[in-house]
Design brief:
By secondary structure, the chain is mostly helical. It has six helices and two strands. It has a single domain, classed as Winged helix-like DNA-binding domain superfamily/Winged helix DNA-binding domain (Arc Repressor Mutant, subunit A). Helix 4 packs across helix 5.
């Protein structure tokens, strides 16, 4: 996703093989991720010889929470009902962890992540 954010100009597409090579992940695994992100409305694709993938929106509009919810909807999902003496205390802790995680992910977007990678040059 960060790779697509860096390449985003609203028009150009990026080949999946280029993304996989740049990010060091297998093409077959990346294909699964991209198809799920397409199904959830985060990316779009163009077929053919000049085909590839691009973000549907500007990177600043795509939060990391949106991506996590698209790819791993259960990751920040329901917390089981408490059981035993310490169940309520443990559940309360997990609810705090979940809410904090959601806030951090919501406050960060692809544009932020893409710009953190950029080297700084001083004259």
């Amino acid at each position: 996703m960060v790779h697509l954010a860096k390449k985003h100009d609203g028009q150009s597409v990026t080949r999946a093989d280029d993304i996989a090579e740049s990010e060091g992940i297998p093409s077959s695994f990346l294909a699964q991720i991209l198809h799920e992100l397409k199904r959830t409305g985060v990316v779009t694709s163009r077929r053919g010889k000049t085909g590839g993938w691009k973000l549907i929106e500007p990177p600043a509009n795509i939060s990391m929470l949106r991506i996590v919810e698209a790819l791993e909807p259960e990751a920040l999902g329901q917390i089981p009902q408490p059981t035993g003496e310490s169940g309520v205390a443990v559940r309360n802790l997990w609810e705090s962890v979940r809410e904090s995680s959601r806030q951090i992910l919501a406050q960060n977007n692809l544009e932020t992540l893409a710009s953190e990678d950029e080297p700084m040059f001083y004259i």
